[in-house]
Amino acid sequence: MIPQVRATRYVTPLREGGSLPGIVEADDFGTYVMKFRGAGQGLKALVAEVVVAELARRLGLRVPDLVAITLTDEIGKYEADEEVQDLLNASVGLNLGVDFLPGSFGWDAQAAVDADEAAKVLWLDAYTANVDRSWRNPNVLIWHRQLWLIDHGASLYFHHGWTRGAGAPERFAAQPYDAADHIMSAHLDLVPDADHELAPLVDRELLTDVVSAVPDEWLEPVAELTTPDAVRAAYVRYLLARIEGSRSWLPRRQAA
Q1: Do 77 and 93 have their domain in common?
Q2: CA distance 9 to 32
Q3: Mind listing the pLDDT tens digit for each residue in 160-214?
Q4: In 3-state terms, what secondary structure has residue 23?
């Protein structure tokens, strides 16, 4: 599992995020962007954050370190903003912390990016069905002149609708990915090269390792998936089906 720490101070909200993440300090002396379990997207968004970030890390892409942060009810008592206080009170328990990168700045069209790396980011987002790396929400930081990927809660859409256990992995396996609004769409022609390099790395062992990083209490039971291990196995089935299928989801440049 990702490391576990305890929140010691709530610093400030980040109001540009739709789920109102906040900066917190923890008992390991770290500073984190906290993604709250009580936010509107719920626990599944936290699961997607961990699964996709840890997959990216294992594929050689840069993502901030993740921790699970225990939030106690005492912290919410001293928050003057009622909206933030409500969110803190609704999020008592285990939340997600993303390492705060001081001095980083958001992606813009002028940022330099390695073409091969850009194609790998596009491949990752297509594989995990991430709908939120658009110009509206780039979800990329530049830190020490390097590209860092953040905010993957909008990936893995299938888990919002799966019923009766594993549902239909084959539908997810064949679902096309629309890259028209993706910030790296200029590098579509290099996606086949990225696929050739990355796809062989994604197997059952790697996926099992990735989903093992998710804390048990975030893996909500559904239908016959009554245990955290059963839910983890379902994530592996979906993601394995997508990588082992025809990969019709690979984005391609549309003919003029």
Answers
A1: yes
A2: 11
A3: 887 654 458 998 999 999 999 999 999 999 999 999 999 999 999 999 999 999 9
A4: strand
